[in-house]
């Protein structure tokens, strides 16, 4: 698995009062009733899309690629955006 071990980049994380954390996307707060931080989710999805495309270019079939995802309240859009968002 050439893509295994890909980690989130260090970024300011709002729930930690702007402290630096390795997270894939920012959140306004940890809550089910909070809107998602779409700009950071878009960036994350592009990074993951590029990673998938690199794997496909190296010869791995799309149906053999798996992205692990831990469900966190308020992150319902992430898997849907990755699977429908522009992968070529």
UniProtKB/TrEMBL annotation:
Gene3D superfamilies: alpha/beta hydrolase. It holds the Pfam family Abhydrolase_2. GO terms for molecular function: hydrolase activity. InterPro entries: AB_hydrolase_fold, PLipase/COase/thioEstase. Residues 8-68 form the Phospholipase/carboxylesterase/thioesterase domain. This is Lysophospholipase-like protein 1. It comes from Myotis brandtii. The lineage of its organism: Eukaryota, Metazoa, Chordata, Craniata, Vertebrata.
């Amino acid at each position: 698995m050439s893509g295994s071990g890909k980690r989130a980049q260090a970024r300011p994380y709002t729930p930690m009062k702007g402290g630096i954390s390795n997270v894939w996307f920012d959140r306004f707060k940890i809550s089910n009733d909070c809107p998602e931080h779409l700009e950071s989710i878009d960036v994350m999805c592009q990074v993951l899309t590029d990673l998938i495309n690199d794997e496909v270019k190296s010869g791995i079939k799309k149906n053999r690629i798996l992205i692990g995802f831990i469900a966190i309240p308020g992150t319902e859009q992430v898997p849907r955006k990755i699977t429908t968002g522009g992968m070529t």
